[in-house]
Design goal:
alpha/beta; five-stranded antiparallel β-sheet; four-stranded parallel β-sheet; 10 helices; 19 strands
Length: 422
Amino acid sequence: MSLIVDDSCPVINLTYYWIHQRHAWKARHQPSIPPERWEGDAIQLKKIPPTIPADFAWEWAEWCWENGVKGKFSLIPYPAGIGRVDEGFPDVPTHEYQAWLRIYRELIWPSFDLTPEMLTHTAVVDLDTFSLTEAWEQVEWVDPPVDNRLTDYIITAMEMLDNVGIPCEGVTSPGAFGKRQEAAYAKAVLTASQHVNNNPRPFYFLWLTHEELPGVPIWYPEKEKGVAIASIVGCAGDWFGGWTGYDLGDADRFITEDLQGGRLPPILEKKLPCVLVGHWPGFYFNGEKSGFDVLKTVKARLDAYDPDGTRTLWMKNSEIGHYWMARELTDIAVSEREPSYPPDKGGRGVTQQIHLSTQFPTANFTLTIGAPIRHIQVNGWDLREVHSRRDFQRDTFLVEGKQTFVAFDLEVGDTELVLIVA
């Protein structure tokens, strides 16, 4: 499980400025063409506040921490061109700006990856002058230039977060940014991540599907170097409060009260990454917090669906990416060897050895072994046997019938598992 929160930034309510700027652009370039639904409703602007207070961010982040919700939270570096995150925002009290940065670092970051959602989420920035152009990040740059301009753009976004002490684990696409040039986009993110943060295993969020089963596509893997980038695919949203902040969502679209309907149960039954998508203005819902209430309802239903915590595990986007890299890019070999344990350790059983080699570390790497196992060592350390899925966690193993499940942190290099088969 993971929760993606888009359109978030310190202080600024992006929806307010996005609709205002888009409609001004329409007046300049398409005065005879009425705005489409995706361009927002100017009539609603009078009920949309231009800022979202730090107090709400504190309340929201504290609730997520207390309820174990993890995921990805955007930090747009130059929201709508109003101000830079590493310089502050005009007409915003310094204490409010500083409170927001503190919340990002201390409350949100422990549970959520923080990513740029490129630079403005409105107009494309001219990097030479840092002025806004007439092109839009999620319109013209759906098909962005595939030369160094794309990479430099992403580098700039990452550097602005790094300037306030946040080395991001990946990026978020503003709208469909990069969608028609995904291969070049993925490569640009990977290059930027290595350049700015020395991170060879980042992720990006671009796709949301409501029809297909989600996966985690891996791009540009270099097995020997431990380099790759993961595409995190959302499977449910935007059903909290909408990006507009005035279109209320519905918890039933995620999971119904009887826990049988909605988008989530079929994904969870297939044990696939279940990534929910929402937008920060929608959670705030113009001060009414209605989208936040939808999130609370969804989480309560998920808890009822999985009361003992054996069917769901909340993770950051980066953790999902790292796990799937390890899953696809780790070499595994199985062999038998002479018993080496004393009788009290099961030395009279068949001893098997599993060798893993990887440059892609991950927490809680799990294996299923098609036999009941009496004893397991990982790199010479005995694992503890548990007897229920509720207790199954890292450095334990669980026998169920003719299968054994084992979990441990997978480190870079070689890992040796020695098993005594019952």
